[in-house]
Fold Pyrroline-5-carboxylate reductase.
Amino acid sequence: MASAMISGLIKSKSLPAEHILVFDRKPKTNSDLHDQFGVTAMDSANQLAEKADYLIAAVKPNALLETLDKLSSHLRKETVIVSVAAGVTLESLASALPKEQKIIRVMPNTPCLVGEGMSSITPNSTVTEQETETVVTLFSQFGKAEVVSESLIHAVVGVSGSAPAYIYILIEAMADAAVLAGMPRAKAYQFAAQAVKGSAEMVLESGKHPGELKDNVCSPGGTTIEAVAMLEETGFRSSIMQAMQACIAKSDALSKK
Ligand SMILES: NC(=O)C1=CN([C@@H]2O[C@H](COP(=O)(O)OP(=O)(O)OC[C@H]3O[C@@H](n4cnc5c(N)ncnc54)[C@H](O)[C@@H]3O)[C@@H](O)[C@H]2O)C=CC1
Ligand SMILES: O=C(O)[C@@H]1CCC=N1
């Protein structure tokens, strides 16, 4: 996730690459990030903590609190800690950090890599409006970013954080069916992915209800309605909703650990 955000930031040209400081505990990852993006690799998490104005913590949720606890004595009071970890609440983040530390929870997704991310932003009470705005602007450099209340974060994990995985399965399945019908594999991925991208753009740009857009594709007695009837019969909607409910429940369970 960190590489996706770094790549998105570099592509946006909103910050000089060398102003982006990175530290990964694997030395090879640090040198790869430096070589690939021109960012500045730090020697330790503590050095990063001392220098950063906005520190984005992108380690796995189960390692996050310990990592923050270790570097907390090196943090400056003004530094805003940005956590992208699923299921780690503002309250638990605060417990690992100095009192009154500024903390923002963000839930991004991997399409940040191509400038089409969707990120939710949730500040704690010590963060100023201007700092929140800075983080919204930062995450808007590689997609869309919106402030949401913490109670909505599990829904965000389901609808955008984890969602690319379901969409890739959809694209893969669509391509498989096209290959079955004789289309070469590479072309099948291109057609399927572009159909998904174009359909998403139609929802975002037209402002029309997805049902209306679906109706516009279904010619009476035509091909599409055959597919739609089969999707309903095989429980496509219900399958998506059940998968998301499992994802949302897991996010909720993680936050109660
Ligand atoms: N992968 C995704 O699509 C999304 C991930 N997230 C969140 O992003 C976070 C990272 O997830 P991924 O990128 O998927 O994991 P990852 O395992 O690919 O990356 C984690 C990185 O952290 C490094 N690391 C581990 N402990 C460290 C430490 N103490 N100090 C410095 N570096 C350390 C690892 O070497 C690794 O490079 C998680 O908290 C996850 O919940 C949030 C939204 C989407
Ligand atoms: O699977 C995960 O736990 C992370 C959080 C959202 C997307 N990936």
Summary: Residues 1-2, 23-26, 29, 45, 58-61, 63, 67, 84-86, 107-110, 161 surround NAI (ligand 1) (CB under 6 Å). The chain has two domains: 2-149, 163-255. Strands lie at 21-22, 40-41, 54-57, 80-83, 102-107, 117-123, 143-147.
